[in-house]
What does this fold into?
Amino acid sequence: MYLISLSQADLFAGITPGYVSGASEEGHASSYYKETWTEKPHSFSLTLDVGGSINYKIWRFDLKAIPAFHYCLTDNYDRHSALIDMSGKALHEKNEPVRWFFSISGGLAFRF
It folds into this structure.
């Protein structure tokens, strides 16, 4: 009898439509010379997802880890950054869309 065993490893890929709720400007963080913020111009999202699921069995429990990469097919987030001098004048500004992100989720399940 094995108490800990790798029972299943799955790979997945697909397209996920969705809706991103919230205000237009999600977050704003600033420092002394540099300001960065993220803006959400559109609420509808469409991502291309690739990831995997790893399940570990421990007696009657299943421990899961699910890492995934997501590529945004729609323009949902724009990252803005500006370099500010002492007088408050912007020396350099940069705007770029956020095209991909990484997520990891997990869980613990009890089997009857």
Notes: Residues 1-5, 26-32 have pLDDT under 50 and may be disordered. The chain has no helices and eight strands. The radius of gyration is 21 Å. Residues 9 and 110 are 18 Å apart (CA to CA).
